[in-house]
């Protein structure tokens, strides 16, 4: 199974390279030295240890968010609250280490635990609404993302804001709470090891435990799961709780590993990157690691050509949008739940359209 998923990942990656080339080559041909642009995009991220470190730094939250999404997708839940959970988890972690008096050694673990629990509510609430009232988790999770954003901005502005700073940012995170750096000259931190370990544990959970097996059965065939007598509502809610905890924990790790203050004034976008990584990896936790690294490599390469050449930032955004389009279109073609959803709407539209057509037809 993993061999098939890996082959699919490689094919999708090759398709993405082709799409990037179609966009990037015409832009490079308009510049005085097009080969330098292509060289900077392809090899630039590996010429400087700092830029290579940027790939790993950016891949760290993408791995954990991708894992959170994969666990929920495997259970058939299209919950997109990962972005809000990531944001709220980071804020709750920073608030804990700033407000709660803790010894230095306990700041990071306690802060991450509190952040994970608080932030996971963004995924748990849509899960409960789905289990209790059959409310669409897609709609409710998207809406809760923005509720989390504005709640977070309110808390930062009125409770955590440093008046000595020139912007709406929190007080500085205590040094004892920050995660140690692992590689000199880069910002690679302990959270990278945690993210890789989380993906490996996620693979064990999904493919080697009873809980993961139940989630996959529910995601693949809810009717068969009901025939087996599985508690479908609890299984789907459990998957969203686990996903929310992982995504919120990723936000806390990102804060304690990279930032000195809580400074997000909009949703950071790591949750959406996690969605793309999960789709690219075919919801396989192990393949999420190379998928996140590949997406981060594209991001770093695009940033380098935007900074060093006269390439508009919109072109880099266009490349990222096409990557997202290719990956998600591939997911739609293979995701049975999405296909059932689309086909159900299509069938309903056909059924409602047939009588009207009959009415228009002459007798």
Descriptive overview:
- The protein has 15 helices and no strands.
- By secondary structure, it is an all-alpha fold.
- The longest helix has 28 residues, at 2-29.
- The chain is globular and about 65 Å long.
- The relative contact order is 0.19.
- The model is unreliable at 348-363 (pLDDT under 50).
- Keywords: Cell membrane, Membrane, Sugar transport, Transmembrane, Transmembrane helix, Transport.
- The chain crosses the membrane at residues 54-73, 85-104, 110-129, 141-160, 188-208, 271-295, 315-333.
- This is Simple sugar transport system permease protein.
State the major sheet: none
Structural class: mainly alpha
The value of Rg in angstroms is: 22 Å
Query: What is the number of strand segments?
Result: 0
What is the overall pLDDT average? 84
Distance between the termini: 56 Å
Helix content: over 70%
Per DSSP, the total helix count is: 15
Write the element-wise H/E pattern from the N-terminal end onward. HHHHHHHHHHHHHHH
Shape: globular
Unreliable segments (pLDDT under 50, ≥5 consecutive)? 348-363
DSSP strand content: under 5%
Protein name: Simple sugar transport system permease protein
Transmembrane segments: 54-73, 85-104, 110-129, 141-160, 188-208, 271-295, 315-333
Membrane topology: Multi-pass membrane protein
Pfam families: BPD_transp_2
What does the secondary structure layout of this molecule look like, with pairings?
Blueprint: H1 2-29, H2 34-47, H3 49-74, H4 82-99, H5 104-119, H6 121-133, H7 137-160, H8 190-208, H9 210-220, H10 222-228, H11 232-258, H12 270-280, H13 285-308, H14 313-334, H15 336-360
């Amino acid at each position: 199974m993993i061999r098939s998923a890996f082959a699919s990942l490689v094919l999708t990656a090759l398709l993405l390279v082709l799409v990037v080339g179609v966009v990037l080559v015409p832009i490079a041909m308009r510049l005085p030295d097009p080969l330098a642009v292509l060289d900077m995009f392809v090899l630039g991220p590996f010429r400087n240890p700092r830029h290579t470190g940027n790939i790993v730094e950016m891949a760290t939250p993408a791995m954990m968010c991708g894992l959170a999404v994969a666990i929920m997708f495997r259970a058939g839940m299209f919950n997109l609250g990962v972005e809000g959970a990531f944001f709220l988890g980071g804020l709750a972690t920073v608030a804990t280490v700033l407000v709660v008096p803790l010894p230095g050694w306990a700041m990071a673990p306690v802060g991450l635990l509190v952040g994970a629990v608080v932030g996971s509510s963004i995924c748990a609430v849509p899960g409960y609404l789905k289990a209790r009232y059959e409310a669409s988790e897609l709609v409710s999770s998207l809406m809760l993302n923005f509720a989390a954003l504005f709640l977070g901005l309110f808390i930062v502005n009125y409770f955590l804001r440093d008046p000595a700073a020139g912007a709406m940012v929190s007080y500085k995170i205590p040094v004892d709470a920050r995660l140690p750096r692992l590689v000199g000259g880069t910002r690679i931190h302990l959270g990278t090891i945690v993210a890789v370990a989380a993906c490996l544990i996620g693979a064990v959970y999904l493919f080697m435990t009873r809980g993961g097996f139940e989630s996959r059965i529910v995601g693949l065939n809810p009717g068969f799961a009901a025939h087996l007598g599985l508690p479908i509502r609890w299984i789907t809610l459990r998957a969203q709780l686990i996903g929310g905890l992982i995504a919120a924990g990723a936000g806390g790790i990102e804060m304690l590993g990279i930032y000195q203050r809580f400074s997000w004034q909009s949703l950071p976008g790591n949750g959406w990157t996690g969605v793309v990584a999960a789709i690219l990896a075919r919801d396989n936790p192990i393949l999420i690691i190379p998928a996140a690294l590949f997406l981060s490599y594209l991001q770093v390469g695009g940033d380098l050509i935007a900074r060093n050449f006269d390439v508009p930032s919109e072109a880099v955004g266009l490349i990222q949008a096409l990557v997202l389009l290719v990956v998600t279109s591939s997911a739609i073609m293979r995701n049975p739940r999405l296909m059932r959803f689309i086909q159900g709407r299509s069938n309903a539209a056909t059924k409602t359209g047939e009588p009207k057509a009959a009415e228009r037809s002459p007798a």
